[in-house]
Write a structure and sequence with these properties.
The protein is built from 10 helices and 15 strands. The chain is of the alpha/beta class and about 350 residues long. The strands form 2 sheets. Strands 14-13-12-11-7-10-9-8-15 form a 9-stranded mixed β-sheet. A 6-stranded parallel β-sheet has the order 3-2-1-4-5-6, with helices on both faces. The protein starts with a strand and ends with a strand. Bound molecules: nicotinamide-adenine-dinucleotide. Nicotinamide-adenine-dinucleotide binds near residues 73, 79, 94 and 120.
């Protein structure tokens, strides 16, 4: 039984508490929040869990093996560092940290201390994304040509991170999880409409070494909520609508056929269209955070890196930082640097 402490019980933290309590391999022994009223409210359903507003008291407790951190992004690094230095395994909310430098330091510290560092890239644990990965890995889509997602709603305007760090992080984690190829360049456009410099709408395009392209549209200022992704392949294509209760994923046997054997150039360049069946595979409806809790416990017991480890979270940070530079330079292509 992994004895976990949760730090931060605002919007997301209570979901971690509920799932770490529900998971058979984990329990929550302590919860910490600077705000005593939030702490009180979050622990009402779990009166046996100990609570504190002091990080020092939490980290001094004997009955903690691991810490899950759900606080604002700027606090991820100092809190995770303190926990790792005290010998605790760490699960960090997305994004891993506020910069590549901070994220790298956490990855190195965890390795040095032989502790597990995991990032809650929740979508990688959803039934939908796991099914999409299965379909892609089985080669059903053929060559993957593009990934195009829309993640918009009248969202909470964050005051510490822009919409890319808040929402596109999900899509960056998903493409990192689905495709072995890593992006080499990013171009992003975005604007701030709330009287500050924090962009609330952005269009992000990733370039890859192959013929694959990924594009994300994220927006906190949309009158409607849309969570839709298209994945184009040379054989089949996927439509994923995360907001519908059933048939979230549809696989279309649609595409084009080229005519390389034709004699004259004009005929060779003509495409013919293929329009076959559409099917909607069954997907597992287990709550993603329950699988996050299980993976965190399993990677510790089995002494192996978690599915969404520090390195994958660091790759996401590399794209986020490059995208931010691109926005500030009016959408210029910015190279994504890997060590
Ligand atoms: N995985 C997901 O799908 C998902 C969804 C929402 C939020 N998040 C992430 O969760 C994190 C928290 O987001 P939120 O929306 O819950 O924020 P929030 O502002 O609602 O809650 C943050 C809580 O942390 C507490 N806190 C801040 N600094 C602290 C400190 N030093 N010590 C102890 N407590 C502290 C605050 O008092 C507050 O209660 C962010 O990193 C966010 O990106 C992830």
């Amino acid at each position: 039984m992994l004895r976990t402490a949760v730090i931060g019980c605002g919007y997301w933290g209570p979901n971690l508490i509920r799932n770490f309590m529900a998971c058979r391999q984990t329990t929550v022994t302590w919860v910490c929040d600077q705000d005593a009223a939030r702490l009180e409210a979050a622990l009402r359903p779990f009166p046996s869990v100990r609570k504190t507003t002091s990080l020092d008291e939490l980290l001094a407790a004997e009955d903690i093996d691991a810490v899950a951190i759900a606080t604002p992004v700027a606090t991820h690094y100092p809190l995770a560092k303190a926990a790792l230095e005290k010998g605790k395994h760490v699960l960090l909310e997305k994004p891993l940290a506020a910069s590549i430098a901070q994220g790298s330091e956490l990855v190195e510290l965890a390795a040095k201390k032989d502790l597990r560092l995991m990032c809650d890239h929740t979508f990688c644990y959803t039934g939908a994304v796991r099914k999409i990965k299965q379909i892609i890995d089985a080669g059903e889509l053929g060559e993957i040509l593009y990934f195009d997602s829309i993640r918009i709603n009248l969202g909470l305007f964050q005051n510490d991170v822009n919409v890319i760090w808040d929402l596109a992080t999900h899509d960056l984690a998903i493409v990192d999880f689905l495709f072995p190829e890593k992006p080499i360049q990013v171009s992003a456009h975005g604007l701030a409409h709330a009287g500050n410099s924090i962009e609330n709408i952005a269009y992000v395009t990733l370039t890859y070494p192959s013929n694959f392209i990924a594009h994300f549209h994220v927006n906190w200022l949309s009158p409607v909520k849309i969570r839709k992704t298209l994945i184009g392949g040379s054989k089949k294509m996927i439509e994923w609508n995360d907001l519908v209760p059933a048939e979230k994923i549809k696989v279309y046997d649609k595409g084009i056929e080229l005519n390389p054997m034709e004699q004259d150039e004009k005929s060779r360049l003509m495409v013919s269209y293929r329009s076959g069946d559409i099917h909607s595979p069954q997907i597992d409806s287990t709550e993603a955070l329950l699988l996050v809790a299980k993976e965190f416990a399993d990677c510790i017991t089995e002494n192996r890196p978690p599915l969404t480890d520090g390195h994958s979270a660091l790759r996401v940070l590399r794209v986020l930082e490059a995208a931010e530079r691109s926005i500030k330079s009016g959408g210029a292509n910015v190279r994504i640097e890997y060590p």
